[in-house]
Amino acid sequence: MQGIRLIIGLALLWLISGGFMGVALKAFWGLDWVGSCASLNLLLSRLLLAWITHNEERQKVLYDGAEKENEDELSLAALLVGFPVVLIVVAALWWLMAQFVA
Question: Which residues, at least 6 apart from 102, have a Cβ–Cβ distance to it below 8 Å?
């Protein structure tokens, strides 16, 4: 059950970050790509999750946490959370720039 919550939480985080990017693009360039960006982000997150969980060690790190011997695999699992957070920050900056430039 914990694994399902993690997968749904990650999917929502990636979907929201894609929506933020779409809103930022709309504010900055007038492109209405909110749905497209959210869908693309969701697809990329599912592909990244499939690639990470294809390896049993990475899957264990993702669902159970890192142990001392597999700390190298932690960076791939952190990418699943870190990248959408960075996208949200960049989208917020683009949106702010659009408010002050236009």
Answer: 27
